[in-house]
Amino acid sequence: MNGPRLKFVLGGVVIVGALVWLGFIGYQESKAYYVTVEEYSAMQGKLHGKTIKVAGDVVEGSIDRARAPMEFVISTRGKSLRVRYVGKDVIPDTFRDGSQAVVEGSVAPDGVFQARHIEAKCASKYEAEYEKRGR
Amino acid sequence: MSEFGNFCLLLALVLAVYGLVASLLGAVWKQHRIVRSAEHAALAASASVVLATASMLYLLITSDFSVSHVASATNRDLPVFYKIAALWGAHDGSMLLWVFVTSIFSGVVVYQNRFRYRDMTPYVVAVLMLNLAFFLSLNLFLSNPFNQLVEVGASGAVQKFIPADGRGLNPLLQYWAMVIHPPILYLGFIGFVVPFAFAAAALITRQRGDSWIRMTRRWTLLTWLFLGTGLILGAKWAYVVLGWGGYWGWDPVENSSLMPWLIGTAFLHSVIIQERKGMLKVWNMILVLMTYLLGVFGTFITRSGVVNSVHAFADSALGKYFLLYMTLVAAGSVYLILDRLPYLKSERPLNSLLSRESAFLFNNLILVVACFAVFWGTMFPVLSEWLRGGKITVGPPFFNSVNIPIGLFLLFLTGVGPLFAWSKTSVESLKRAFFWPGILAAISCAALLMAGMRNFYTVLCLTLCVFVAAAVLEEFVKAAGLRMKTVGENFAVAVVRLTLKNKRRYGGYIVHFGVALLFAGLSGSAFNREVSQMMAKGDELRIGDYTLKLTDYRESETPNYIYGVTLLDAYKNGKFLRTMRPEKRLYKAGDQQTTTEVSLYSSPKEDLYTVFNGMSGDGRYEIKAHVNPLVFWVWFGAAVMVFGTLITLLPDRKGAFTTPQLSLDQSVHFEESVTV
To answer: B398 CB near a chain A CB, below 8 Å?
Structure first.
């Protein structure tokens, strides 16, 4: 290996090394387990205090906007989880009865999930109906 | 009409497969007429797809709800403009758009090269037809937009089902940038198939030179331009329509279009080294392969939503086929590259670390690392599930902690790279080149610190922006000065002539200037502020220098939606600015989705961004206001980048250069006369 090439490789290793280290810090800071409500209730306790993301369907009629902070219930396969939204971001327009939501946060001592962030996908109820009829 | 569309797609598939087989056979048997027939089949396949697309547009415009795509993406009262846009408003139709764009590209390439590069064209056609056939079969068999709705009748027999009205186009997509965003992004995803096809053909036919790079330079640039434009339109859409106050959230869909852009950018730079120095030949092959595959991968992520979804990656049928196709293409290409290694030998070693080559190498390394980091972060839920059985996601802090330093390092290279000479830079020439940009950057850094800015990344970013901008301007001023002296032109004429004379070089500098502006805009996000408040009529909200006074609330409707709008008088330092009208809409069709219409006041210094977030039980209005500094420069910088790229794409004057080889030599001479 000639001189400049060696220097380039060394420089590259230093740069990539630094980035990997930065990436690792960022990973530690933002990693979150991603589970469904059903999986969450199966591993009860194990995830206490950790930042997690829980996915589930918003139970019809459970959104309580009168309360501040707002509360609602998500569920999958019969298991449900009460969620309190404590985040600052605007709640997405797609969040409503029946939509698929992913909440990010951790569980409070009273067992209610403290969500700092909500993502929601449209309830594809309509689509599912069509799907059933079509094909 | 839907049967006709279906038939056209099927015909196109048959023609594409025929084109693939015939072009390969023609090349192996050296039968020119068979190759011609394959080319004709390719053109016919394109025409057939165009007909299929036209029949889908007809179905959409005439609201034929017996077709599932029409029923799920439009409704009767939708404006015609959006009925057309609904072609890509749902999954199946957007696959048709993808196939449409692919076949147009293939058709153009086949037509353009009908008399040129006859040794390579059969293989180019084969790769293009392979690509087209793959997407056509997905379109036909897995997500066919021409599927008809059926239901099980009372008697138990299956019968046609025609709903009274369609579900309507997802209202979030009813915005101009979102209407043109998917087609432009697709052009960017797909276009890399052309350089890839030529690269593969060059490998197969054992070409030694870099002719494939020169043949496809415009395609590469144009595709890169489309991809970048698509990215920025997506950001604009997120900013204006989604209403969360930002334009980039490291969402899997955003990431999947960023990845091919990053590698495409690396490719654009590293081919210059191959053209100039005959180095990095293997590397360029790998980059063009990666860019193409990432484009395909991007489509897959965008279309399947697999990363976001609760389901495992391999569950989707689409996923399996995409993985299979990408693995086959990758394996085939890697085999070819390994087999043809002797033809890809570097003609020169790296001479010095202080050279333009080495700046390019670092640029490439860093862009690939950035892409890898984005890939890793995006796919982490999938990868962790494979490795450990539990899905783990990573959020924006991960992406930011890696990509902000990378971005700054790239910005640094953007500034210094062009100042380095090829091969080896003398310390003397460096001192001269760095003098003015260095001084200006130092002054602005001091000014920022004195103004009380303490955020390390922001100060560094803005300082580097000044450095890059100054370095670019210096290049123009120096070269223009030379022309003024020798040719006797005035400054403005000299700058224009100079740019037109060497479009690649000076167009590139303009792009770099745009990059500096864009980064300045990005750095503003460190100072974003937001306030959320429940307001009654007459209440005031304060944010930064601004005061918002809620004066009125009105409700009304259009055929398409019902809306409520709040009127907020905005004052800056007590002086009336304008009335902001953030809106909430409820769309009548389908699921009765609500949307948030942001009201925005943009100035070069900062944006005032207001959102009406709904009414509370006691009749107060929830208003959220953001002040986002420098966002204007993100859009403006992107526009400058587009402008610069368009300049590099301008055709050369007829007769000015007889062959590409000559044009390259001339530009070398010219450049040397400038740098000396």
So the answer is: yes
